[in-house]
Each structure stands twice: as structure tokens, then as C-alpha cells.
Amino acid sequence: xxxxxxxxxxxxxxxxxxxxxxxxxxxxxxxxxxxxxxxxxxxxxxxxxxxxxxxxxxxxxxxxxxxxxxxxxxxxxxxxxxxxxxxxxxxxxxxxxxxxxxxxxxxxxxxxxxxxxxxxxxxxxxxxxxxxxxxxxxxxxxxxxxxxxxxxxxxxxxxxxxxxxxxxxxxxxxxxxxxxxxxxxxxxxxxxxxxxxxxxxxxxxxxxxxxxxxxxxxxxxxxxxxxxxxxxxxxxxxxxxxxxxxxxxxxxxxxxxxxxxxxxxxxxxxxxxxxxxxxxxxxxxxxxxxxxxx
Length: 294
Known about the structure:
This protein has helices spanning 3-17, 25-37, 49-59, 64-69, 73-81, 131-142, 147-150, 233-244, 280-289, and strands spanning 90-94, 109-113, 121-123, 162-166, 178-184, 187-195, 202-206, 216-217, 250-257, 260-267, 277-278. By secondary structure, the chain is an alpha+beta fold. It folds into 3 domains: 3-59, no CATH class; 67-166, Dna Ligase, domain 1 (2-Layer Sandwich); 170-289, D-amino Acid Aminotransferase, Chain A, domain 1 (2-Layer Sandwich), CATH 3.30.470. The strands form 3 sheets. The chain has a 5-stranded antiparallel β-sheet, with helices on one face. Strands 1-4-2-3 form a 4-stranded antiparallel β-sheet. The chain has a two-stranded antiparallel ribbon with strand order 8-11. The longest helix has 15 residues, at 3-17. The relative contact order is 0.16.
């Protein structure tokens, strides 16, 4: 372990588990950015995509964003903007884990908290479902405010709840590939496809014409993996334009299931602005597309 790695491990309890809510946002972001990216955060003249995401955390605080990242409330937003036919079927919503009647849930389902992105529970077969482990995971997540570990302001006032959605897979039969569309003031520019997420997470990047982009963001690519263009890519891009209109930057996620499009989520700060680009120049190029509000 080198000096930088030792420093990160030393500071991890302070950054993630200590009294972090008392650290001012700007100072916290500078500290975490330095340990995550290995260099100082430039907020006065941000150039890279990640730097500009940190700037947006501090200065782009539209109250509507809270509704848009809430995994339950966003369903109403999507229904209003593009139609409820793009929503994955909802099974239930609860304020506490104790309120969930697992007996009444179908054999396959997905549970997730409404206020974060790390508390997904997938049940493919109730006969092999570890209910106690899932209850423990969700209960812990409900007590945590995701905002304090990342300073992604949109999550600060989201009401912690649990939703259950229908378990679905794409043509692979084993997973749902994520089609994450990076939009800048209503213009889609890059499509990130995440796959093998629960085995050996990989991702590919494409432009909006489905030309492969020889770059990576945080996770490796698989040169042997051919990902076909979604059947309704044009519709997917049109929907992303509607959902990202008048927003400096938002990532609009979809799933493609046997030719039908389903909404995933809206994300304003991809990877919280700490994911590494290879080559680094691609992070600068994406940063050039993000025009910060004056």
C-alpha cells in the first residue's frame, strides 16, 4: 500500500463515518475530491466533467431535483412528462421495513430505498431469499442520509421509504443492461451501457449514433462483448431530451426489454463526480459540453 492509499484509509472513517455533517459543503468536497482523484479541486475555473459536477453540487440547487431523484416521487414526474407506460410496475411502498408483508410479495421482486442508490435487494426466488439479511440492509439504509457522504444536495430532503418493483430481465434472461444517457441542456451526447453488474461490472460508451467510443469511466470494457443498438434507440433519445430539457446536466437511465422502453432513474452527479476517465482527455471533453449556469 503506497502513501496515497494509506492516507485514504486513514481518512476514510473521518470522511464517511465521523461527524461529517458539521463540515461545510465546499470544504468537504475539496477534501473528498483530493483523496478520490489525487489532485486539488478547481472550483474557480472547473474544466473536467468531474470538477463541474462538484460545482453543480454547490451552486445548482433547484428544489425540483429532490422530487426527480426520489425513486417513488419520480414515478409521478415521469407519468406527467412522458407517460406511465414507461414505468416498471410498482408492487408497494412502505415507510418502514416492518411494514412489508413478505408473504404477499410475488416470488420475484426488487426492493430499493427511495433516497439512495446503494440499497437494492433482488429476490429471484423466495424459497432462497435471505429475508433477515435484506431487512438488516434496508433498515440500515433508512437511517442514513446519502447527502452527507457525497454532498449531492438533491438527496438531502428525500423522504426515506422502501419501494418494491416487478423483477424484470432483458433478452439475456439474467440481468437488465442499463442505458445511461448523458444529457447537456436537453442534448444527449453519450450513452453508457452497464452490464454484468452483479458478477464483473463492465461498461461501454457509445455516441448517439451508436458508434463505440474507445474510452472508459471507472469500470473496464470488454472487447469481446458486442452490444447491439437498442431497437428503439431513437425513441429513447427523444424521451431523454424531454426529461433533460433546461437542465445543465442530468443522466437519464432506461432499460430496453424486448423492444419496450422502461425508465430507470435520473442522476445529476454521475458517480458523485469521482469516477476516473481513461483517457483523461475524454473527461475534459465531456466537461466542455457542460455549460455551468451563470
